Amino acid sequence: MILKAQNISKKFKTPVEVTILNHISLEVNAGETVAIMGKSGEGKTTLLHILGTLEPATEGSIEICGTVASASNWHALRNQKIGFIFQAYNLLEDYTVLENVLMPAKIGNQDTRPGSPGFPGSAAYQRALELLEEVGLAHRAHFPAKLLSGGEKQRAAISRAFLNDPALILADEPSGNLDHAHSTIIYHLLLGAAQKRGKAVVVVTHDRELAALCQKTYFLMDGGLK
Amino acid sequence: MTLIALMSIGVISLVVWLIVLFLSVTEGIEKTWLQKLTSLNAPLRLTPTQNYYSSYYYLADSISESSHYTSRSLKEKLLGPTDPHNETTDEAIPSYWPKPERNPDGSLSDPVKIAASILSDLKKEQADIAYQDFEMSGGVLKLQLVRPAAGGGETHSFLTQASYLASFADQSPYMKELISPPSMKDLNHLFFLCHYAPETKTQELGFNPSSFQKKASDLLSQIEIKTLKTTGVFRVPLTLLPENIPIPAGATLKGKDVVRFMLATTERGEKGLLKRVGYDLFWNGKAVYSTLPIYSEQEVSFQAQLIQSSLATAQRLDDLRFDVQGSLNNIPLKGEINWIGVEIGAADVKTHFAEPPKSAPPWIYGVGIHGIGQKLVLPIFSSQERGIMLSRQFQDNGVRIGDRGYIAYPAATAGALQEQRLSVFVAGFYDPGVLAVGNKCLLAPANVVHLINTTSQVEHFDKTTSAGFAVWIKEIKQAPALAKKLQDRLKAAGIDQYWKVTTYQEYDFAKDLLQQFQSDRYLFTLIGLVILLVACSNIISFLVILVNDKKQEIGILQALGASRKSIAMIFGGLGAALGVLSSFVGVGAALLTLKNLDTLVQFLSFLQGRDAFNAVFFGSSLPHDLSFQALLFVLVITPILSLIAGLIPALKACRLSPSAILRSE
To answer: What ipTM does the predicted assembly reach?
Structure first.
């Protein structure tokens, strides 16, 4: 079991108490791909953020790879066990594509030295190049992220999400800003890479066609998963 | 963003610059004052206590023939026998006197020689220590001031001043810093005085140029005159004018006749051209009497060289001749002139001699190799003429080197108190610094001071402070530690009851000033801290803006697993880095300013139209040395304050919710 969410509730107190998520439980196994669909404002992103420890739940617990998430281990879980992909890509625009991809390794204090004559480069560096190769962005490795197109940015983000070899990939509308053709490519890349590595994937989307590519599909409605 | 960062750095640097500059300058001034204070009075003093003055060791002199029944000074005690009393020839020791303190072998214990040997040992251990016995006494100084009168001849006036006499500390390595070399005014006055000699009866100076030649020769062997400058309206000798060159001049007419010419004038009389051809003079091309006087109102400075042959026969100053060269409004003047209407403008004065000179100059001079082992000497010409040093205020009031007079003091004779006089002359001026008795203290040879002390029956002084050993060290601030060491050794030698060790911090006249300096420094450090705090708070604004600007990046880094701590450290570290950078910029700027302080002060003085800093208080130039304390202060405090300033935005940054940030993008 990679992800085990039990009885997740989220309530906002201001100005009046609103319950967004109501006792949701979700289990995702390794190699499993799960799509969560729902109307805008139903709390899909909130749920994904709670699953990814970016936001605390009002009630309930999250267990990732057998570790119960708490404020003390959030950053370690995010760095080692979870890979995020966002609708807005969220690359560091002033850095190059390769630097962006390497960022999780840097944050995890891994060796990220580039290759030089007589030195093939650190493990993280090589892995980053492989991932960029895999998403077809190797030729853009040294481009500043801000010069990339939307599709290219999302491919870089996918490479970044896989860099630290996390067990769980969380994607929030990964093709929300892309046209249909690009969306399909991105989905295939994402799900292909995940399946190849046996990763658990949770995707939030409102596109039925794309959701159908996942093994399971849940609908978020009135605070519950159906 | 960059602009705001630069502004923050600029403001902090400015404050750091100000603090370093101010603290360095005040510390330097304090150091200068301490130096002045302790050059004359020594940072450490070893003075005999009342126990010493009531001991058999001290009293024995007054009943012993070998001491001439007179108390001996410390120096005499050092050089003379320990026990002067001869039981067979001298009167018996009064029974009420304290018992002599004796060594185990029965000999009399000698606290002066032991103390001197302790000091000598200390000097061997620490090369920068110097010591000397000192003594103080009092008398009335009377100076006869002979000055040239406006219409020729001279005026006599007298200056009387009840004075303290301190023995001149020729062993002090710092004394020479208090003494300024003879000024040109002094030199001109010394030449003027060559015409005067003391009258046999009254000992007062009278016009007597009979020994002028010798006196002038002696002086000229110590002085090399470089330039002469005119005083008032100068009569230009005809031969000084260039030949065959028409010179613009003004002529004063009486009727139709020219009575005199004025060179380089714009106002008087008829304008025209004056030309010299050989010994003939032409006015606008017309021959005139070559004896007509030619004057110059403007001051002319001549490069001058004495014609030695004129000295050999000179009876008066007017007889001395010089080869001169100068110019007046681009008119070249060259030729010979007599010492009339001119005075010394610049001269090289001998104030140091490698060997004791055969004929001493009438001013204070140094003997020995410059720096090492150099000794200052107060000139003594005979028992009748002893050089003394007066405080600089006398100089400001018109007293000059060479002025003669006497010190009067009362002495008991069989019948009554009688005034005794010791002839003295002024051999130089010293800077009294903050000496409480200030300008009332004159420095005289040690034997003169002791003579007055033993002869004079009037007890003005507390003996326990007016004599003793002065001890100098290079690092004045080490004085308390040295005092402790000295005290311990005196105790170990068993003579501590006879001696008291005092440091400059305990001198009455210094206490207030030192406290003032200290409180000034504390106050400014406090103010500096507050300004620095305000300046560093600039960092808060900068970083808060930066945090807001970089919100998205912060959110992304958090999503990628960056801990709150590492986010906080980025911004805290940035704050500290700004502080460190600013400190270095500020310190660098301060160093540069300190190096060019004189130029800056000159500029400030120029802007103000007067001296920006009073030389009496600040010294002739402001200190240039960086204060180590100030450096330490800014280099430690600024980064700490900046770090603290950086923590506030850092806390804000790490409290940002990644979910909220990433959702809003």
So the answer is: 0.94
